[in-house]
Design brief:
The protein has 338 residues and is of the alpha+beta class. It has two domains: 207 residues, lambda repressor-like DNA-binding domains (434 Repressor (Amino-terminal Domain), Orthogonal Bundle); 128 residues, Umud Fragment, subunit A (Ribbon). The chain contains 14 helices and ten strands. Strands 1-2-7-6-10-5-4 form a seven-stranded mixed barrel. Helix 7 crosses helix 11. It is elongated, with a radius of gyration of 26 Å. About 6% of the residues have low confidence.
Length: 338
């Protein structure tokens, strides 16, 4: 039996079991097939940001809870499993097959991008096949062979002949060096077992495309709390802007000004000007401790006769004084309708 490389060690299975939730229920609610969900829990299939957030909602956990850390009890188990799978990959013919696929691809003059497209595979999956870190499933054989100008039988025969002639040895050795480098702590070519592979780098990568929701509707005022318990996918133009946060406003108070389901993206560092839409906090932003609750309002920014800024609630119209505009009046820089 062939083994796939572990690329996403995670806590999803442990969290699911602690909640008493069946995998079939998570699969159905998340829109992932049961097979895909199983692969996610085994660490051989990655999730995109939207899927990660969906799972967090289903499991009732934070994004950071999903990723393994070096200090976690299960970290050692994941390390053993990753080592075992890499060793299995070396011994089960995947490297020979992958080197053969690469050789045949180069003979027909295709780039790896062209070949993956013709084989109806993602570039990541195709690359893993070529470097011997992923098995080939039955329903993928025909498309892969066709992309290399072969039938399935002639593809396997051609690879076997290349191996007998010794034409794959050099490539297998180079791939083996790269695979081994992944096991080296702090290696520049991959994630090392020294902490990063358990989630630090993966979490940072996912986090760059996500924005924490600091403000949600309350009974009267909106509740403001600095926390990553809830996140939303960042608009493309705001990716990597780690300073911004999102707000889910109480649209009932805004009347017909906005649609029902929207997110406001806010930049605390942007200077609010008269006429801007902004978030008015009841406390200075820098003085609010993580997870400490305070309140906020969505306001239109106005300026009085003395040049002092204040906010105006839209519905019903009400003046909101701001004692420290720099610390309590944050400009809304983008509005996204769900």
């Amino acid at each position: 039996m062939a083994w796939e490389e572990i690329i996403f060690p995670n806590n999803i299975r442990n969290i699911r079991l602690s909640r008493g939730i069946r995998m079939t229920a998570v699969s159905k609610e998340s829109g992932l097939s049961l097979s895909a969900m199983s692969k996610v829990e085994k660490g051989v299939r990655r999730l995109n940001q939207k899927q990660l957030l969906t799972l967090c909602k289903i499991l009732g956990c934070k994004l950071s809870d999903i990723f393994i850390r070096a200090s976690d009890e299960v970290a050692g188990e994941w390390e053993i499993e990753m080592q075992r799978r890499l060793e299995n990959n070396e011994n089960n013919g995947l490297k020979i097959f992958g080197a053969g696929v690469r050789n045949l691809r180069r003979k027909v003059g295709k780039t790896i991008s062209q070949a993956s497209k013709d084989a109806n595979m993602t570039l990541s999956v195709y690359h893993k096949i070529e470097v011997g870190q992923r098995e080939l499933y039955e329903d993928e054989v025909s498309n892969l062979a066709k992309s290399l100008h072969h039938t399935p039988d002639s593809m396997f025969q051609a690879i076997a002949e290349l191996f007998r002639k010794g034409e794959l040895t050099n490539h297998i050795s180079k791939v083996e060096e790269k695979v081994r480098s992944v096991l080296t702590p702090n290696s520049s070519s991959g994630f090392g077992f020294s902490g990063a592979i358990y989630g630090a780098k993966i979490y940072d990568s996912a986090r760059k495309k996500l924005v924490p929701v600091f403000c949600t509707p309350g009974d009267k005022n909106m509740v403001f709390k600095k926390t990553d318990e809830r996140m939303v996918v960042s608009p493309a133009n705001l990716e990597n802007n780690t300073g911004i946060y999102a707000v889910i406003p109480n649209t009932k108070r805004l009347g017909s000004m906005f649609p029902v389901r929207i997110h406001l993206f806010v930049d605390p560092a942007a200077t609010a000007q008269p006429g801007d839409l902004a978030i008015a906090l009841t406390e200075d932003f820098d003085k609010i401790e993580p997870n400490e609750k305070t309140h906020a309002h969505v306001v239109m920014v106005r300026e009085d006769a003395k040049g002092k800024l204040y906010g105006v609630l839209v519905n019903p119209e009400e003046k909101i004084p701001v004692s420290n505009a720099g610390g309590r009046l944050h400009k809304v820089i983008q509005i996204v309708v769900e």
